[in-house]
Model the fold of this input.
Amino acid sequence: MPPSSSPPLTLLSPLICGTATFNNQYNPDPYALSTTAIVHEALSLGLRAFDTSPYYGPAEDLLGAALDTPFVHQKFPRRDYFLLTKVGRISGDEFDYSASWVRQSVRRSLDRLRTNYLDVVYCHDVEFVTPDEVLTAVTELRRIRNETGVIKYVGISGYPVTTLCDLAEMILDKTGEPLDVVMSYANYTLQNTRLASIALPRLKATGVKVVANASVLGMGLLRRKGVPIGGKGDFHPSPGELRAAIQAASDWLDRQEINDRRLENVAIQWALENWMREGADVGSTGDPASGLPWIREKIEKYGGNKLGVSVIGVSSVEELRETMRVWRSILHGLEDGQTSTVDSGRGTDDRDCSLNRQHEVRMLAAGICNVLGDWVDYTWPSPPPDFINRCSGPSVPAPLPTPAVSPDRLPKQVPIEEAQR
Done:
């Protein structure tokens, strides 16, 4: 079990800043992003958790550099925010869940993130390996947790929700201890809600404390301009017919001529608002991050109930601010949300506007699902039928790409011994 000094996992922020976008899969040059500004703005607006992975290219290094600044050291002690990372996935077709690689990956993440502990470590994309390999990795992560304390909580992440449930049940059966946290991505969106309809009952039955919903836009699928094309080209696994259906839904929405209601706007608000309620039983009571700068808040301000945990990814400060505007609007529509609108100086009319927007989004979401038709709840195969794990022996970390000119200072290398002090 985690050391007694660890904060309860249920104090995890209900909104987590994801860093998959700090990667050339989503952006042509992640070093050209203002990643330090994004991280600082996220903390200033109340976000208290960051999700990353070694698989996300330079994301761990960029996040670590952003956190290792006087701004953060002076205003946000390490105990005030959660760091979540992953092990096991090395590249698109290479996975290593061996105990030796898990240890090496954890040490490397501590170094890159410039921290002496990790709040959560997931086994990354568990559907690509065998159940026995997942059990080996989870067992090693728990051993590290128990013997060193540099890991606080252990979980799994992946796409197929039935696989996540099968593994959560297997791990409980084999070890007698439930997983602390499970993260699913692209399975609670406007297009697909299988995380709630299929997975939630089974995951709750295993005793999982937190179920996080990531990629509320379905890896960028639910956007007016289509899936993102980064430095690796078109990586998205969705079939062309689904993309055509999404485009038709976006075109339908545009014809409604409602201000500021692009497909991505509706999709983000719908997923965040509904998962906040659907995932509450396996949610958190952490700082709700209403968007009020520099204010550390308590969940009691919004009724005292747990909120479902979501992970959002952005590529700019402007995208972050827009997402926080949507999040704040959702919070103001909750029980006792009127208190926050008064405290923020926006007045009680803001809560009325929030409730009106929520009603509007529900109506538009119904129309979008009607256009999608049989594509609602469709999932693509993961792994693909022709997948072969290319890992054949001890893994060696791939070098990061040489950065282009960046608006942010490049991360310095910190010896592990120094990082763990």
In short: Strands lie at 15-18, 49-51, 82-87, 89-91, 94-95, 118-123, 151-158, 181-185, 210-214, 309-313. Confidence is low (pLDDT under 50) at residues 400-421. The longest strand covers residues 151-158.
